[in-house]
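Archive transcription. Copying these from loose printouts into the bound notebook so they stop getting lost. Printout 1 of 2:
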Amino acid sequence: MPGALTTVLIIPTGIGAAMGGYAGDAIPVVRALGQVCDQIITHPNVLNGAQLYWSMPNVAYVEGYGLDQFAAGAWGLKRVSANRIGLLFDQAIEPDLRLRHLQAAEACRATLGLKLTDYVITDQPLGVELRTSPSGATWGTLKHPDSLLRAAAKLIETAQAQAIAIVARFPDQIDAQALSAYRQGQGVDPLAGAEAIISHLVVREFQIPAAHAPALMPLPLDATLSPQAAAEELGYTFLPSVLVGLSQAPQFVSLDPQVFHDRPDVIDRQCVDVVISPAGACGGPGLLALSQTQAQIITVVDNPTTLNVTAEGLGIKALAVQSYAEAIGVLAAMKAGVAVSRLWPRMGRLQELSKE
């Protein structure tokens, strides 16, 4: 539509972003962006708030690997009214803890009307192991990724699942100092990097929306808990926000020219007008791919991470702003057709073009 504005919001997971590095703490940014953007494409790390969520009709919930494929021009996104969500449990989850998650899923069915299939349990414990890189970013591994993929295939083939919510048992023994810093709003999410690995595997293999909720025993109460970390300590499960996000997550469509023909219900990367990223986290494949298009790259200085990979250092043309509030002002100007440069007081004179 004329004047429509489509924005991709990227806040990479597991790198300690000051905003977006905690459960759902970037949702206020998305809500505000939603008032000036016709469409926002972002990933579960931004929108998952454990038991808290905020559904918005103009926001597309796109898993990180799928977002990278979209940015590369390999996949398109097809909006849907509702997905049938398959629930996948790690065999390592204790019966009582699994029941807590099942009851959360049943609550989402009963209270929110979400469509869920019957669930599966992996045929082996997934064996999640957590890792930290020298930069401080977190990642992880699975001992039995093949078991994860077999369970996902069963949900797709037998239950006709259109999206998959994965619940894996994460270690309770997490570095005490790192966990304490995170709960105080000062550290890196120790789980996030491993969560991304899990969902990436399923999306890469099956080209289907997927997201992950870790299964953990509740932590002891902490009276000094940071508000940013509080969403993760409301109960026994992080599952509700994942189920809500997947319920209307767009389906992935291959843009292979041999099989794809233009369809009005499928959007591709050429629809993207703006990409917003933390200023020091510009090295991801999604942003790098979209920087090769006509999209305006906006970097936010006041969202520091453990990384220092800048647009300038990569030779990417970008508009640096101080805050997300400033970014929203830039988008409002773009939507109105106002020259963005006029949001700042200094203004150069028009010059005659060279006669050469």
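Printout 2 of 2:
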Amino acid sequence: MTSKPYTAVLIVPTGIGASIGGYAGDALPVARAIASVVDRLITHPNVLNGAQLYWPLSNGFYVEGYALDRFASGSWGLRPRDRNRITLILDRAIEPELRWRHLQAADAARATLGLDLTDYVVTDTPLQVTLQTASSGASWGTIAHPDSLLRAANRAIVECGAEAIAVVARFPDDEGSEALQNYRHGSGVDPLAGAEALISHLVVREFQIPCAHAPALQPLPLDPSISPRSAAEEIGYTFLPCVLAGLSRAPQFVTSLQGRSPSSDIWAEQVDAVIIPATAAGSSAVLSLSQSRSQIIAVRDNETRMQVTPADLGISALTVNSYLEAIGAIAAHRAGVSPISLTPQLGAIGECRERGGENLRVRKGHLNSKL
């Protein structure tokens, strides 16, 4: 008898200053390692995007954040794809030279990676992105003309035949800001991440199509002292390559129960393990999956600005110190081995104590119904 595929979900929320996954693709090594010990790894662009850099995972599923929330709630399924036709949407606010840099990156992806890109679409109005920081330190942002983005996405689908959409919006250049300098030196929150998530959420929510975003910015002056974790964003004119590579094989979304036909479709009830930072347990996807049979694994040394633990929310979770330990926990879970059996603190079992009369009545009723 063939066992079912072991499926894990790796979540590192964007824009919350995660010490691993809060920078330019620095959670990719984690994703690569976890993918090697599971059959299917579902994760999101914040984990897999590394600006100019990316890594193809044959068993990885690149799922935008809003879609991941819908998947976790059981409302949407994931249908694996070998290839998507991608349409590039460019913000009208992007200057001509910067636009050409992004178009050349798209052509390079066609010529060197063999990706399937359609003709591009330009928004009819500048999107006018602004950046904000919450009191917690998390980043967020606004778009003055979301209607222009949605009209462009509709054109991409109807006129260009898009099966996935890559958006490039002109973001504010803020070279001298303290937030940007902290981020470049490995001690701050990505100032762009919150606004980027808003852009992709809009498109996915409206059209139920894979989407990811790359910001358009002028190149920064050379700084020899930047952190290795942010260095991927320093080596080119655009962050687009990783987005195109991710979208090329991103799963399509099954948004109706009537669509449950191919056996390859993936649904939330098939998720075996969910790996999260220990202080970022409050996301919609985590709350949904915590109500299922999935094993929640919380990683203590991936610190964030959120400070919301599984215990704070009454979520049962296995807390580990590092992603190295998380990989071991996944291996044990997959093998059906209790984690406590792998420690020297294994004590003798005791008698199960009754917690209260109401519980006893429930159990007796359940027992009598089975007899």
